[in-house]
UniProtKB/TrEMBL annotation:
Residues 792-933 form the TIR domain. InterPro entries: Cys-rich_flank_reg_C, Leu-rich_rpt, Leu-rich_rpt_typical-subtyp, LRR_5, LRR_dom_sf, TIR_dom, Toll_tir_struct_dom_sf. One of its GO terms (molecular function) is signaling receptor activity. This is Toll-like receptor 13.
Amino acid sequence: MTPVGSKLLKLSIAFLLLDIGSFVPPVAAYFLRNCWIKGNNVMCKPTEEKITAVPRDIPSTANSIDLSSNWITAIRADDFKKLFVLTNLDLKSNGITQIDRGAFADLISLKKLNLNRNKLPALNDDVFDGLSNLTELRVSYNRIKVVGLTTFKALKSLTFFDISHNKLHSSTKVQLILQQLPNLQQLVITGNALTHFQSWELSNSSLQLSFLDLSQNSIAVFRIVADIFPNVTWLSIGSTIKHKMIWDIRNKTFFSRVSTLDISGLQLKSDDWEAFLQNFNSSLVSLRMNEMKRNLTKLIRISCTIPTLTTLQLRENNLKSIPANMFQLCTNLTQLDLSKNLIQTIQDEAFRPLKGLRILILHHNRIPSVPSATRNLPGLSELDLSSNNITSFGCQDFANQTKLRELSLYQNSVPALTDCAFKDLVRLQVLKLQTCKISKLNNAFKTSLPNLSQLLLNGNQLVVLKSGRLRGLKSLKNLSLHDNQIQVLERGCFMGLTNLTELRLQSNSILREKLKKGCFDDLISLRSLDLRDNHISYYDTEALSDPPFSKLTLLEKLAIPEQHRKGRTYLPRNILQGLTNLVNFEARNMQLLQLHKDTFKYTPQLQQLDISSNDLGDLSPDLFAPIGNLKSLYISRITLKSLDFLLNANLTKLEFLQARKNIFPVVSEEEINSMPSLVYMDLSGHSFKCDCDNAKFLEWVVNNTQTQVYDAYYFECNYPQSLKGTKLLDFDIQSCSLNIDFICFVSTTCSTLLFMLVSFTYHFLRWQLAYAYYLFLAFLFDSKQKNKQVQSQYDAFISYNAHDEPWVIGELLPKLEEEQGWKLCLHHRDFEPGKPIIENITDAIYGSRKTICVISRRYLESEWCSREITLASFRLFDEQKDVLILVFLEEIPTAQLSPYHRMRKVLKRRTYLSWPRAEGNTKLFWQKLHQALKTKENHGEEQFLLTVVNQP
């Protein structure tokens, strides 16, 4: 094979393999049953039905799976196969009673596993095999009584283990945990049934634990005779039992690093407390003594002698009053928590010793007024008086609190604020006044609180927001006024709030008519405005003369849905005028009948639009023309009849589409293609037309790997009636169309094979084909001439190549015409001008008695010469007439004549004339040619020799 032919063959084979390789069906669909995907996080929450087993269609690329709050009862060995990159698995709040051995074997990358709130009775041997990289394991609130000898041996990387609220009753179970987890740092065994905790039963060497929670057990004996916990810094041994614990620590240095200690509910002998606390004398920073019930005053005195103690928590101790000497020794405290007691009175001198106190929490007590004792704390930065019985704030209540930064006063009963209540709080940044029944602000915020950045006034009884009431809050950034009874926003009500970025006004009774002109104009820095659940409704789409948000040029988020008005509403066409930086707009559940096409022409940066739960019907493509940057669109429950608007809406950047519970029966291929960037589609609660109109959509749902189609398993058929209630995914689309992919495969394969065949034929058989082509043409013309009775006009037609013309004119023509008197036909002399050349050739051959072919290599390469000899050979063989005379001007090997089947046939059956061999005897050559011209068209005379040489 020549190099060219070899290259053609290799190229053809490559094309064929490419076509076969391209016909590979998609390997995975991009939708899950009861689950959805966000990035590489899979969440499987109950929708129409709870999940009873681990889904089999979770993609292998998932790195987080949330299967919590379902009805999974068992974890099977093959439930998590091939999830090699999974790092977080949440299985809490199911009914799991069994985990097969090897169920987690493929989870080689798992870091966190949550099995809380299930019904596991035991943790069997090797149940966690494969989890060599697990760092956090939670199995709280199960029924675990038994732990296997090799349960935890694979968990070499585990640092956090929570086995709280189970039924472990023996310290030997704890021993198994500690021995198999060499890198464990945090262990939580709260709420089990442990009765003893003794070091000799646990370990013979030091452990790495830094956090140990043994609270809410029934430990009667706590005995540590060896230094097995040298690194513990957080220790909880609180208890709810009534009997007294035996506390036996042989060396006071064993817990010398504990900085946080929780002894809530612990009972010891009265004389043992001092010795007990001396074990932590050198390092304790935070002490929790909640629900102590007795000896509290003594414990406070003892604990406050620890020089390092700075945080003291005393919750739920039924303290009704705080005497003056209770914290006399607590001079080093910086944080004191007295919440959830029954405190009614606090002596004025109670906190005087606490000169360094920074945080005071008095939440959820029965204090009737701001305690005077707090005025003795000039260094206080955080004060919590929420959920008390305070009815007013006086001018001296917060006197001297110049360093206070956060003040919580919510859930009290203060109908009106006094003008001077907060006058000294010059550094206050956060003020919480929600649910205090406030109906009047008066001038409390007119000049005070220059550094306040967050003000929570939600859940009160404000009706009117008057002009200038907030103008002193020049640093305010977040203002919550939701869940009040506000009806009127006066012009200038937000005067001075030039730094406000977030304003919450939802769930009020704001009337459109009372939305005063320019009431938002001062909020030049506002980024987020929430006006949901009000009475801001319009009766038509006519443009407003003074759009309410026109000065809010930096606003990025606006919500105005669910307006409380009976009947249908509209939005003025220029309601969003001025909002050039708006990114998120929500107008759901407003009973809107129409959106004007110019509604969004003022918001070119809009990326998220929610117009769900309205009566809009069909949407116009012009509505979306100005917002080509839209990425998220919510159009659920708007009685949408089709998605045709997408075809011309130019939403090429749309990534999220939620269109639940509409009435369009078909999603076309064109509609899908109009959203090339879509990654999430939610059409749940929708009924579809189950026929070939949805074939492309169904095929796309199953095969596409870009867009997640949420809840696709539950799409139902609504039409035709015979399929109503069946699943859309069960509809067979094979009858709708031929397999285009297979047709393309077959056609391209055939084309490739044809290309290979043509390449092969051209390289090896091109001359045979050329000859066959001319032979066919000659046959056509010969058949045409057979029945014609043409009288011979010439004695011979001379067929020659133009390069041999000198020999024909100089040698052949003088001898035959001038000397011998034959009448010859030559194409350059006797062909009729204007007639097709093939007809001239045919007429010349059939109008001559003989045809003399002057053969040379040039002759054999000539297209027309090949046609002439082929046509003449037809007369010789097919008409059985002696009409052909061959004259060779050159010696031509037989191999070069192989493409010319007819010529070889002539040479095998007849003699021929050779000019090169007649050089020594040209007289005999011309004599033989003369005799050949004289013979009649009769094969019976073939014995007459025509040449001076033998046949080849």
